[in-house]
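Sequence design from tokenized structure. All designs in this work follow the same two-part layout: the structure record, then the generated sequence. An example of the structure record is given first.
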């Protein structure tokens, strides 16, 4: 079993430097995949109302027998934005998870045309005060959106989970996060197993370190100071993905991988892409 190191969030929470994405992990096989990840050393689980797998995540947490060691993330969907709606949404998530606390609660997408993310965030802060939420954070927020919720509430989100991989390294946003004490979390860190893993620079770097291309990409995230949440249903690939804390890339290797930049891979610009 791998020990995944942690970093301290701005609220003092010890936050793993790598976690498990659970999109599409559903049903009995999904539960088993999450259990196997926990057995392999994963401690951070990333779910969402819209993944329709909160029951599976909660079941895996109970089966693991180490609930107190785990950080369970879920996310408010767009259709639940607004103060009262978010309180109700959290209660629904807690019921489906079968847990008494959401360890990390995120706004899934800002949905700026709806313009309710500030009230949503206020509700999350109150849920945190009531002990129903551990850390409050956001996902897919731009710098102006982050500035707005901080200005409105005085509470700096602990995490911003955003699209981030070597094709879209998000240097500017990461620098803003660092300046504010916000932890960056990378979604689709493997670029969904696209041609990224066949890029020459990735393959050559992997050969130089005696590791796999996937491990090079995940180590790149770790060295950028972002927590990647690769999804894998397979215990062998889960173990491969978590085993990235025994080697280091040079600054030149990190820079060469970052030079793969070409922009977002999907239609996920938070100023225009909205999800309910
Ligand atoms: N906040 C947001 O808006 C978003 C959040 N997310 C979160 O981020 C997580 C990760 O992103 P996701 O889109 O799933 O994509 P990833 O970049 O994690 O890629 C997942 C794909 O890579 C494959 N894979 C995983 N490990 C390996 C490996 N070692 N070798 C070869 N293939 C591998 C998986 O297949 P297999 O399972 O067969 O191993 C799967 O097909 C999501 O599950 C979700 O939790 C994702 C998108 C948006
Ligand atoms: O996986 C997520 O968290 C999402 O927000 C997805 O809906 C993602 O944006 C996607 O898969 C779009 O096709």
């Amino acid at each position: 079993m791998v020990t995944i190191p942690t970093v301290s969030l701005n609220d003092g929470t010890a936050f793993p430097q790598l976690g498990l994405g659970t999109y599409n992990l559903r049903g009995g096989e999904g539960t088993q995949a999450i259990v196997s990840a926990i057995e392999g050393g994963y401690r951070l689980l990333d779910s969402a109302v819209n993944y329709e797998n909160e029951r599976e995540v909660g079941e895996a947490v109970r089966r693991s027998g180490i609930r107190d060691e785990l950080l369970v993330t879920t996310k408010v969907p767009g259709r639940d934005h607004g103060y009262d709606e978010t309180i109700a949404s959290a209660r629904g998530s807690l019921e489906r998870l079968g847990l008494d606390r959401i360890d990390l609660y995120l706004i899934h997408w800002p949905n700026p045309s709806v313009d309710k993310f500030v009230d949503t965030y206020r509700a999350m802060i109150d849920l945190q005060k009531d002990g129903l939420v551990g850390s409050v954070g956001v996902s897919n927020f731009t710098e102006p959106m982050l500035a707005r919720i901080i200005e409105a509430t005085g509470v700096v989100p602990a995490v911003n989970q955003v699209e981030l991989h070597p094709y879209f390294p998000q240097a500017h946003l990461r620098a803003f996060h660092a300046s504010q004490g916000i932890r960056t979390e990378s979604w689709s860190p493997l670029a969904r197993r696209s041609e990224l893993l066949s890029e020459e620079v990735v393959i050559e770097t992997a050969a130089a370190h005696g590791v796999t291309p996937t491990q090079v990409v995940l180590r790149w995230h770790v060295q950028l100071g972002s927590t990647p949440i690769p999804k894998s249903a397979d215990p062998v690939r889960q173990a491969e993905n978590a085993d990235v804390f025994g080697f280091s890339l040079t600054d030149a290797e990190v820079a060469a991988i970052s030079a793969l930049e070409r922009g977002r891979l999907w239609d996920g610009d938070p100023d225009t892409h909205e999800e309910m």
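The chain has a mean pLDDT of 98. We note this feature because it recurs in several other targets discussed in the main text.
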